[in-house]
Amino acid sequence: MYDRLHCELRSRFYNPCGIDFLSLVRVRDPVNSSLSGKWTTIHRLASRHKHSYGYSIYRYKNRYHESSESFKPVTIDKQTDAQFMVIIAHTDGVMDGVFFLPIDVLFEKRFLGREEGHCSSHSALLYLPSIDPQRLCKKAREAQSWQSQYFAATLEEFIVVAKKVGIINAGIGSSVRLQSL
Predict the structure, then answer these.
(1) What's the rounded Cα separation, in Å, for the pair 162 and 145?
(2) Are 40 and 25 in contact (CB under 8 A)?
(3) Inter-CA distances, 50 with 56, 135, 148, 164, Å
(4) Phi-psi bin for 145: left (phi > 0), alpha (psi -120 to 50), beta?
(5) Can you tell me the distance from the alpha carbon of 32 to that of 43, in angstroms, rounded to the nearest whole number?
(6) Residue of 30, 33, 144, 145 with fewest CB within 10 Å of its CB?
(7) Mean pLDDT confidence for 22-31
(8) Which DSSP string corresponds to the chain?
(9) Distance from the Cα of residue 137 to its chain's centroid
(10) Taking phi first (over 0 means left), then psi (-120 to 50 degrees means alpha), and beta for anything else, what does residue 18 get?
């Protein structure tokens, strides 16, 4: 599933925007990819469960899928060379969209926990903008508010997020043919 969802990420978002994706997968290093040779990223999957509105990046830790470094929790310190955490949100293997989160924002919002950057089970929940805020508790609404700025479900939304974080320039929207995939 991990490979299939990452292929979908590349075909739906990266390729149409001209972003080159290179997998780096380094042992004991959470940085596992490079985008256009300029930015290093950490890619993870997050799934939604039937009794939760939030998407969790920890359900994969050897519980539902094969044992793999890709599914273990990530610990990041502030000296990481990664600029972004890319989290594919899915429900039962169907991509719902992608969170393209700057690492500095994750530390600022304490999504990565305290100084050492280890996610706690409570801080590592993601909330899609489509979830009715009235169904969420106060902390979840606050998280949804800032997280939704970095979420994309369509190519058009991805271009807006990518421009916001600076991985594509402001003129790319005119050169990218927007089409449903």
Answers:
(1) 18
(2) no
(3) 12, 14, 21, 32
(4) alpha
(5) 7
(6) 145
(7) 57
(8) -HHHHHHHHIIIIIGGGT--EEE---TT-S--EEETTTEEEEEEEEEE-TT-SSEES-TTTTTSS---GGGS--B--TT-S--EEEEEEEETTEEEEEEEEEHHHHHHTTTT-STT-BPPTTTTEE--TTS-GGGS-HHHHHHHHHHGGGEESSHHHHHHHHHHHTSS-TTHHHHS-----
(9) 22
(10) left
pLDDT at 99: 94
Query: Encoding tokens for residue 32?
Result: 């596992």
Asked if 153 and 96 count as a contact pair (C-beta separation under 8 A), the reply is yes
Q: 13 is written with which tokens?
A: 């978002």
pTM above threshold 0.70: yes
Query: Strand 125-126 to strand 84-91: parallel, antiparallel, or no bridges (unpaired)?
Result: unpaired
Task: For residue 87, give both structure tokens.
Answer: 């989290």
Pairing of strands 125-126, 94-102: unpaired
Which amino acid, residue 136? Answer: L
**What residue type is 95 in one-letter code?**
M
Reported residue count of the chain is 181
